[in-house]
């Protein structure tokens, strides 16, 4: 739930990197219209990444093969490209910007809460739909449950959309103060701040009646004040002495709910979402007489600001010109760009149908071009007298490490065009 805040914030405040449930491109037609596309695309992607064919991973103490994740069934929409990201766990690398940031947050909580917070950063990202949605009160008809937004392993299993998927289990197991960090997965747009795999951290702190009785406040007010004090301290720990402000907001899983903003580099930056946990979630976790606070943040979003990293794809780079710039414990070292290679723009126009969604288009582009796809942008659309709607998308190709040749770009674009036409059933113009 707590990490759900982060996802919710990001979707409504581009540019920023993705965090919780609410989709930036809604599925107007529900799940069923996407199932034929999912089935076709899965079959066509089997040869996309040959290196992933016989992979075997160890995730959260469980051994998982590719066939456990990329299945030949209608409800599965996990492509090979996403499978190759499973198990990389960038947040567990101490010399990586995400690992450095995670450890800096750990340091704050260890110091200020006397090591009371349990830390989890290796929980398996394959979870049930109950864990991912029901346990954090996501309505049955919520858009985040659609195949357009979420990667489904099967009808009852997903790649977690947020680290909050583990919250109910941890509460039931008796944990009262904990931080959960992990890689999360969402079908999303293609640009410098959005990627289908990103990383979140959530924090939860549970209070007993004895904690707030002596204060003269009720439990909700006590938890809200303690939450704000905690997160203001965290913001100072990460960003230094900055101006802050609290914004009242709405989340379905907390009441009251807040967003914390800081004035940093001459603009207001949303840092995280938080609130006092809905009592129903605590009850489901077996804590009927307690109150709790929770927060969630996106690691990429903060790391891009703290380290001056301009493109979210760089977090996945193995180029030593990137990786050698960062060292364990060195928070906020400013990234020094290496040679920026030229972009190549390719436009593609087609008549859309009722089941078309931009997320499906982006999945095809990523499946063909991988991280060579820098951006997919709608640059024109119109509806003719017959009621047919045309979209024109500009695809930007650029490598972070080398110049692309005309020949390989043209091959990528032709492959994209072929797959868009065959898999999305659109008419190219």
UniProtKB/TrEMBL annotation:
A Pfam family (short name) is: tRNA-synt_2d
EC assignment: 6.1.1.20
Question: Boundaries of each Aminoacyl-transfer RNA synthetases class-II family profile domain copy?
Answer: 182-337
Q: Name one GO biological process term.
A: phenylalanyl-tRNA aminoacylation
Location(s) in or outside the cell? Mitochondrion matrix
Entries under Gene3D superfamilies matching the protein: Bira Bifunctional Protein, Domain 2, Ferrodoxin-fold anticodon-binding domain
What CDD domains does this protein's entry cite?
PheRS_alpha_core
Reaction catalysis annotation: tRNA(Phe) + L-phenylalanine + ATP = L-phenylalanyl-tRNA(Phe) + AMP + diphosphate + H(+)
> Has UniProt tagged this entry with the keyword Glycoprotein?
no
| GO CC, one annotated term | mitochondrial matrix
Every copy of the FDX-ACB domain together lies at 339-429
Q: SUPFAM superfamilies of this UniProt entry?
A: Anticodon-binding domain of PheRS (SSF54991), Class II aaRS and biotin synthetases (SSF55681)
GO molecular function ontology, one term from the record: phenylalanine-tRNA ligase activity
Q: What are the entry keywords? A: Aminoacyl-tRNA synthetase, ATP-binding, Ligase, Mitochondrion, Nucleotide-binding, Protein biosynthesis, Transit peptide
What is the enzyme's main class?
ligase
Q: Which family does it belong to?
A: Belongs to the class-II aminoacyl-tRNA synthetase family.
Known function: Is responsible for the charging of tRNA(Phe) with phenylalanine in mitochondrial translation.
Protein name as catalogued: phenylalanine--tRNA ligase
Q: Which organism is it from?
A: Artemisia annua
């Amino acid at each position: 739930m707590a990490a759900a805040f982060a996802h919710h914030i990001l979707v409504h405040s581009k540019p920023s990197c993705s965090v919780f449930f609410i989709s930036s491109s809604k599925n107007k037609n529900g799940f069923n219209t996407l199932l034929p596309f999912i089935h076709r695309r899965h079959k066509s992607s089997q040869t996309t990444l040959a290196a992933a064919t016989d992979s075997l991973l160890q995730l959260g103490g469980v051994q998982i093969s590719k066939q456990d994740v990329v299945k030949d069934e209608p409800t599965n929409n996990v492509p090979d490209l996403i499978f190759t990201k499973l198990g990389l766990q960038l947040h567990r690398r101490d010399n990586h910007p995400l690992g450095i940031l995670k450890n800096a947050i750990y340091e704050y909580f260890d110091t200020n809460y006397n090591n009371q917070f349990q830390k989890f950063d290796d929980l398996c990202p394959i979870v049930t739909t109950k864990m991912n949605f029901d346990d954090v009160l996501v309505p049955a008809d919520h858009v985040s449950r659609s195949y357009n937004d979420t990667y489904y392993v099967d009808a009852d299993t997903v790649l977690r959309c947020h680290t909050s998927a583990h919250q109910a289990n941890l509460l039931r197991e008796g944990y009262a103060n904990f931080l959960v960090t992990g890689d999360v997965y969402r079908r999303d747009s293609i640009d410098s701040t959005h990627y289908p795999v990103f990383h979140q951290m959530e924090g939860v702190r549970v209070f007993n009646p004895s904690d707030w009785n002596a204060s003269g406040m009720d439990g909700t007010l006590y938890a809200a004040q303690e939450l704000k004090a905690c997160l203001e301290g965290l913001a100072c720990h990460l960003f230094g002495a900055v101006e802050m402000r609290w914004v009242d907001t709405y989340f379905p899983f907390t009441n009251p709910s807040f967003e914390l903003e800081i004035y940093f580099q001459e603009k207001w930056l949303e840092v995280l979402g938080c609130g006092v946990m809905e009592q129903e979630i605590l009850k489901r976790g077996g804590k009927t007489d307690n109150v709790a606070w929770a927060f969630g943040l996106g690691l990429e979003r903060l790391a891009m600001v703290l380290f001056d990293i301009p493109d979210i794809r760089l977090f996945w780079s193995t180029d030593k010109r990137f990786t050698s710039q960062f060292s364990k414990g060195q928070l906020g070292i400013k990234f020094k760009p290496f040679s920026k290679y030229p972009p190549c723009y390719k436009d593609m126009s087609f008549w859309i149908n009722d089941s078309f969604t931009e997320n499906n288009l982006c999945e095809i582009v990523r499946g063909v071009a991988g991280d060579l796809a820098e951006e997919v942008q709608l640059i024109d659309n119109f509806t003719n007298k017959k009621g047919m709607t045309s979209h024109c998308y500009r695809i930007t190709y650029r490598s972070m490490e080398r110049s692309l040749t005309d020949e390989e770009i043209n091959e990528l674009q032709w492959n994209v065009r072929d797959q868009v036409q065959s898999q999305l059933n659109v008419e190219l113009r």
